[in-house]
Design a protein that fits this description.
single chain, mainly alpha
């Protein structure tokens, strides 16, 4: 959702266009699927390019990356289309690491972070922060 927040910086005529432009951009992320989202992006470009070219250029930069959440199961979209839950949890991990103040070695720090992430995955989220892979150091 950073794309929507950053859009405001590039609007020339904020008073006349901000609310409507923001609503049209927001509709892209409220589409029922990827194809509908792509159609809404195309419509957004057609409508706003003549009026607000800088805002449109900013919005469509890396738009494919910001629509990647449509490739996952729909039940995950709400979590995946915003980085806020992840940012919030990483802030909590940093807070807890600072409480310890100093670690015996790097592995003890890794163990603490792993434990926090595992606990989060097990108890708080239906969507894990990090999925276990064959490369996961701790098991």
């Amino acid at each position: 959702m950073h794309k929507l927040r950053n859009l405001s910086k590039y609007i020339n005529n904020k008073k006349a266009h901000r609310k409507e432009l923001y609503q049209d951009a927001k509709m892209v992320y409220e589409a029922e699927g990827r194809m509908e989202a792509v159609n809404k992006v195309e419509r957004f470009i057609r409508e706003w390019q003549p009026k607000e070219p800088k805002a449109v250029k900013n919005f469509i930069t890396d738009i494919d990356d910001s629509l990647a959440f449509y490739e996952f199961d729909q039940s995950l979209w709400k979590f995946l289309k915003s980085t806020n839950p992840l940012e919030s949890y990483l802030k909590e991990i940093r807070r807890r690491v600072r409480l310890v103040d100093s670690f015996r070695d790097e592995r003890s720090c890794d163990t603490l972070v792993f434990t926090l992430v595992k606990r989060y995955n097990d108890h708080r989220r239906k969507v894990p922060l990090f999925k276990k892979t064959k490369f996961t150091q701790f098991t």
